Structure prediction request, 1102 residues.
Amino acid sequence: MRFFFICLLFPLGLVAQEKFTISGYVKDAADGEALIGATIYIKSLTTGTTTNVYGFYSITLPAGNYAVDYTYVGYASQLQNISLTQNIRLDIELAAEGKQLEEIVVTSEREEQGVKALEMSTNKLDIKTIIKIPAFLGEADVLRSLQQLPGVTTVGEGAAGFNVRGGNVGQNLVLLDEATVYNSSHLLGFFSVFNPDAVKDTKLYKGAIPAQFGGRIASLLDVRMKEGNNKDYEVTGGVGTVFSRAAVEGPLFKGDGSFIVAGRRSYADILARPFVDILSDGGALNFYDLTGKANYNINKRNRIFISGYTGRDNFFFARNQGFSWGNNTGTIRWNKIFNDRLFANFSGIFSRYDYALQFGEDARDNFNWKSSIRNVTFKPSFSYFINTNNELSFGAEVNYYSFEPANAFGTSNGNRVDIGLPEKYNLESAIYLGNSQKIGSALAVEYGLRFSHFAGFGPGTVFTYNDTIPGRRRTPVAERTVGRGEVIQTYQNLEPRLSLKAELNDRSSVKASYTRMAQYLHLISNTTASNPLDVWTPSSNNIKPQVGDQYAVGYFRDLGPQRQYEFSVEGYYRKAKNQVDYIDGADLLINEFLEGDLLSGDGRAYGLEFYVQKKTGRLNGWVAYTLARTELRVNGINNNQWYATRFDQTHNLKMSGFYEINKRWSASANFTLVSGTPNTFPTSRYTVQDILIPYNADDSRNNVRLPAFHRLDVSFRLEGKTVKRNGKPRKNTDYWVFGVYNLYGRRNPFSTYFTQGSERVAQGSPINSEARQLAIIGAPIPSVSYNFKF
Amino acid sequence: MVRIIRSFTVASLVALALMGCEDTIFPTLREAEPVLVVDAWLTNKPGPQTIRLTRTQPYFENSLPPGVGGATVTVTDQNGVVYPFVETASGVYEWTPSGSEVFGQVGLRYDLSVVFGGETFVAQSRMGRVPAIDSITFFREEATQFADEQYLAEFWSVDPKGPGDAYWIKFFKNGVRMNKPSELITAFDAGFSRGGNFDSANFIVPIRRAINPFDEDPANEGQFLSPYSVGDSVYVEINALTEASFNFLNEVRIQIDRPGGFAELFSTPLANVSTNVANTNANGSKVVGFFNVGAVSGLGRRFTSLSDLSGE
Prediction:
């Protein structure tokens, strides 16, 4: 009844009643960190809003008296009585809830993506949850934690990156404070570059990606760094089996700003040095990273942030023998509140990924190869809070890329030859407009449009390749030299986005979305797992941009008397054009004619994702199950028929559970059960020039499934004492984590390969062939770590 | 505490080293019809030239491939000269020179024809050039944790001017061909690939020094024997390839050089390697294998004493 009443009066209200805006930031009372996605709700109007990624909110209401409820999961809510007769700036600080056992909430937060929210296909993992998940070698890791979510797969243990809803590793846009991270792994793929001490919030968009984002067709992983405590100095850290971490944070400018600096370094090489002589002569086997951020409130309407990351992995077997890789990113942001309803952010971003490989003992004979990709980005974005029912977002993005595929020199017997490849230059720009609109109290819709444009320009050489039998190497038939600044090729795409939500009742809703994304950069990788030497290459006259369309529908429901369970099921269908594949025997590194070795095809993926989460109580956690299929069709591969990708998993079951045993002890476990991924098996063999060659009479790809993969990990956490011996409370807190990864030591197959063995065979005698199954981890891996905060 | 962590780290490192593990398995593979295999690699070396015809066999059938007899095999050069190949054993077809006659001439095109079972299989190749091998040297490498002091060989040869030359480099230790999958060495000009653009120079180091067999010491696991010891001989042969056969051998290497372990993370899928042999009836029986005609150069040297080591 009230609903109709409001609807009826609303249009009148527009003319009859003056409206005012309440706006401000919602922050953590303890350390001043902005709370992302906190809810602001006005019960009497059954309307509300949530804070954006900077913790800002704005809501415009008719003049009147309101009880405004500020809530955030895990925090005590705050009710503010507001007499709205003018625009009000109201910054709110929420306090984390007390440590009573019953109330501790550590789960994958879905507050703003549950039944009530418009968002779908997203999963948010806050750092408290990530830390709780039993981790490989005891080191909490952002990317490995994502593997516990529905719709996320990987080719196998130790593989870098992740696959979302059938997308490959290079189709995920991974952002660290808005800067693109081109390679998110340390130590091949066992750890990721994100230091949990410096991460505040991680959100994975598997679909329904807002118009603000573009550039990759499968997913967006938005990692936001902590701002740092603006009230007290704080040191956190940990000592683990693989690396040690330390972070310092504290206030700047008397609390008008704050900073955080966090570093990690692996020390396997230092501890191993006595046992491994090879490292003593200039060798190195380590990784490190340093993450930092600072912010300053210039005044109530202006705030600036500076954040950066640098990290590197080193694998040197001796001085000048080995390789290294690393990312560097930097972001400068300026939050500006133009008025109570117009919020803007201007970001200037730099990101660079590079690797270097060197071999050779002396100046007469050596090999040096460096490769990099860098981009400089300017991204203004605006949110205009029109009224309680409409939030308009618009903005632009300009990316300038330079690719250095190979800056390489080979010196042979004193003869130095430049074997490098020329750099490539590209400009990717986009403008977008989107609106999030509520229609009544049960319906909401978000629609947006992104227009993206990509240009490649000189100097450079443009090759034209011949057409040949699909699947075979194409050779250049013409080349053209283009001058500096001359445009080689341009592409453009319109990318519509649409999301709908309809609440069926107080406890359930249905949602649907459509997302089109274009991708102009391609990760060139034909190996089972992507590796640090993979190169990114831009779209060109020979490589068309990838375009992906995703349709998703979902049903969301709260269950249980206290709504302690959340249930959702989502179905998706994704099709993609211009997917990059490779000829057999493709030569991807330092190859001027790389484009002649690439194939282009179609992709499709579909699946159903089920998710149940228990959010509260001593025992909490979630179960995720995905039924899915991911396929490619490329002329020249698998007889031009659809084939399953290497990371296709039919069934994918993940369970994560957390249990508070008592005040000091808690336990966590996760269990994974997934279908085996596809592999290609031969049928026959033959001999040419005394070489045994495997032969697949069907000429098929990924024709056999490996056995299923399952693994159980457990960990126990012991909180340090909270009181000193003399009974006074300790200021410092600490805890131990003891864990076992792969508890029952299953040898999960990573792949099966077919080989004649590495041994020599006497000429004229038959050659033996065999199949070998490889498990990357074939034993339980124990770990211990000590973590502190003071 | 540091002590606990440290002992755990050492334990984890040991575990990490041991954790990757492999098992030999025996999956059931689909049974497939045998396919004709043409193995025709002809050179300008003195003596008879051999072409082998065999069939594919089930992958786990560890026996010599069955020969295909009764075929008519000829090679014709672009001037119309016909070289008949006569079956001397089951599946083995030979052309025997008369007197000091040598097969082939650099630069000429050759056509292979195999008539079998009412079908005709054809292929083409062009005889490529090779540079002479100027010398072979030996050098010493200091002991590492994986090996005691080692003696290695290196061959010296300059790729001729002009891009587009491709080579298969074979080497023999004490007269025995070194044929492990990891010992399949190819070069494109002086480097690894066409895109490498490394023309008319000494072959690059990894190629010059690829002629060293690394074998594990049977008495000492994890330790490698010196590739050469005093008294050993090494013989190096450069075989010319066409670009097609160069691509073929590179595809073959990807398929056969599978050291396992962590390298499998970065392996590419199993795929059929290319063939340049075709059935004249596109809908006829399948055929695999390769036809290549190439010039050959070679040089050998014996490691007579430590004074042979260069720089010493």
